[in-house]
């Protein structure tokens, strides 16, 4: 059974703090790793897609890294702001067209 | 910006009634997914299609749920008969391939009384 695990489940940080979370996925049969941002009462929005070992992507204060050999990806947020509060989902695509989602990390940034 | 369109946005109905949810994928997207938002699992995959062919519907309760793509611009998810435990937000997403992101609709919030 292919499983994607995210940690921590939830996180509270103060405004201005930097933070990071982890997505673990099977290292075999890897095709791509996706990160999404999901605000309450909205739909998930794509942040990054990464396909190559060692990939690093950045969008503003958010960045992500990928290690396909050991099966993990990190998402970093520098200088967290209240508007960063959301659930951050990762999804792994193996050899099929199915996206296997983790249960997410719920981030709350306190002003 | 192109968007995935889901209708209705909200649906309240009584137990036992048929419910049909519709999704218009982004033009040119050939992969369509149906998800249900759950408290425990986040996004639960119900079914997905590629080039209108169903590839996997193992996540759906077969006795009451059905998913179809009558054409490239319309995907449907039906529940018959509906039950209170079906109450959830149902998302449709579309995409073009495994190394591209999925684009999600705004969801259908379903309440079964």
Number of helices of chain B: 0
What's the tally of helices of chain A? 0
Roughly what is the average pLDDT of chain B, rounded to an integer?
Answer: 93
Question: Which consecutive residue ranges of chain B, at least 5 long each, have pLDDT under 50?
Answer: none
Terminal-residue CA separation of chain A:
41 Å
Tertiary shape of chain B: globular
Structural class of chain A comes to mainly beta
* Biggest interface between chains: A-B, 23 and 23 residues
Low-confidence stretches of chain A: none
| Succession of helices and strands of chain A | EEEEEEEEEEE
Distance between the termini of chain B: 36 Å
Q: What's the main sheet of chain B like?
A: 7 strands, mixed
Element-level helix/strand string of chain B: EEEEEEEEEEE
Radius of gyration of chain A: 13 Å
What does this structure look like?
- The complex is a heterodimer of chains A (111) and B (113).
- With 111 residues, chain A is mainly beta.
- Chain A is built from no helices and eleven strands.
- In chain A, the strands form two sheets. In chain A, strands 2, 4, 5, 9, 10 and 11 form a six-stranded mixed β-sheet that branches. A five-stranded antiparallel β-sheet of chain A has the order 1-3-8-7-6, with no helix packed on it.
- Chain A is globular.
- The model of chain A has no long low-confidence stretch (mean pLDDT 94).
- By secondary structure, chain B is an all-beta fold.
- Chain B is built from no helices and eleven strands.
- In chain B, the strands form two sheets. In chain B, strands 2, 4, 5, 6, 9, 10 and 11 form a seven-stranded mixed β-sheet that branches. In chain B, strands 1-3-8-7 form a four-stranded antiparallel β-sheet, with no helix packed on it.
Question: What attributes does this structure have?
Answer:
heterodimer, A: mainly beta, 6-stranded mixed beta sheet, B: 113 residues, mainly beta, 4-stranded antiparallel beta sheet, 55% strand
